[in-house]
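Long-time lurker, first post. I've been practising inverse folding by hand and with some scripts of my own, and I keep getting stuck on stretches where the structure tokens seem ambiguous. Below is the full token string for one chain I'm working on. Before anyone asks, I'm not after the true native sequence, just a reasonable design that respects the backbone. If someone could post their per-position residues I'd love to compare against what I wrote down in my notebook.
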């Protein structure tokens, strides 16, 4: 049977690179963030990034996912540490890391938190796609000490990415104190942004998982039924061309796929999920078992096929996109 007639679910293969875990926000569920005076805080060194990129390229990964704490430069101690590796601002460092990824044969996808139009514009040529979780349009207590989680700021940043024609990933974090009607509102907001700019390629429906030592360590994570309800709602509310993504290291995907999920996000065999380190990535073989034999897994790139066809990428990454994509816009297999 032609692959187009089967139930196809996509995923990508990436390396997950946490650039820094210092962050101006203090989200009550976050186990990733550390203050500059904490020995566990870090800024990743260029040599370490190069090592991860080379391992990723050798093992067939196509994407370098750069994640961050948001606007860490608001703390002078972070700025001093950044200058010790030769940079006076994070954006310049990130641009160089993107160039390293492209040289290694990996398409960058940056997730640096809320950015201005100008910052997004400078990153666009070196990124295949970018991302910012909306999480929720509601004002939840978990974000009381997180200036970057003011919903209006995130919506503005996602809109700016749309004005710049950046293929974009966003999503909901489910179970952080929002209600079902908040989730509906969040999804409607994303749908409206997409109707206006056409740039949302995927929406992650991610379940909150409690982290030891955080203010929300004792909170119940959302039930599977709650996640199923949200995936169904996302399928109903979002325009047809947006993929609904569920993270297969945080939740069993099979039933969610039957109810509308169509993407499993980035799978990394070389790096851990630094945000949820206790949840190991499945291998592609394990994923095949998880989704069942009626589903065909298809590898995609950091930029979805429709944006490859529309050429929403720069001349800087054109050769790499052409090398990695097949004629349908998925990962080339031959
Ligand atoms: S913005 Fe991200 S890294 Fe910063 S505290 Fe919130 S969840 Fe953690």
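-- Answer (accepted) --
I ran through it position by position. Result:
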């Amino acid at each position: 049977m032609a692959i187009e007639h089967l139930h196809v679910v996509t995923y990508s293969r990436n390396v997950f690179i946490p650039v820094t875990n210092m962050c101006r926000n203090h989200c009550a569920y976050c186990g990733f963030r550390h203050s500059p005076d904490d020995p566990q805080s870090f800024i990743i060194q260029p040599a370490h990034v190069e090592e991860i990129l080379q391992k990723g390229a050798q093992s067939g990964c196509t994407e370098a996912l750069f994640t961050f704490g948001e606007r860490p430069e608001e703390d002078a101690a972070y700025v001093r540490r950044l200058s010790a590796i030769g940079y006076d601002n994070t954006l310049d460092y990130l641009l160089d890391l993107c160039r390293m990824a492209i040289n290694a044969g990996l398409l960058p996808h940056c997730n640096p938190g809320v950015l201005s139009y100008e910052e997004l514009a400078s990153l666009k040529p070196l990124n295949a796609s970018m991302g910012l979780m909306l999480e929720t349009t509601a004002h939840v207590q978990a974000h009381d000490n997180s200036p970057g989680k003011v919903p209006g700021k995130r919506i503005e940043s996602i809109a700016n990415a749309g004005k710049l024609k950046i293929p974009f990933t966003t999503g909901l974090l489910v179970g952080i104190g929002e209600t079902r009607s908040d989730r509906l509102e969040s999804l409607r907001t994303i749908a409206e942004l997409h109707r206006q700019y056409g740039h949302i390629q995927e929406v992650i429906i991610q379940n909150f998982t409690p982290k030891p030592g955080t203010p929300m360590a004792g909170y119940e994570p959302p039930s599977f039924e709650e996640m199923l309800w949200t995936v169904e709602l996302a399928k109903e509310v979002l325009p047809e061309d947006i993929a609904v993504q569920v993270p297969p290291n945080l939740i069993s995907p099979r039933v969610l796929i039957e109810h509308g999920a169509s993407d499993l996000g980035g799978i990394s065999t070389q790096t851990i999920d630094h945000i949820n380190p206790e949840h190991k990535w499945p291998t592609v073989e394990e994923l095949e078992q998880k989704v069942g034999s009626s589903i065909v897994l298809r590898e995609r790139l950091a930029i979805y096929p429709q944006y490859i066809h529309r050429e929403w990428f720069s001349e800087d990454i054109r050769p790499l996109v052409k090398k990695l994509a097949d004629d349908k816009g998925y990962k080339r297999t031959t």
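A couple of notes from the structure itself: Strands lie at 7-18, 63-67, 107-111, 129-131, 168-174, 200-207, 243-245, 263-267, 295-299. The chain has one domain: 3-324. Happy to go over any region you disagree with.
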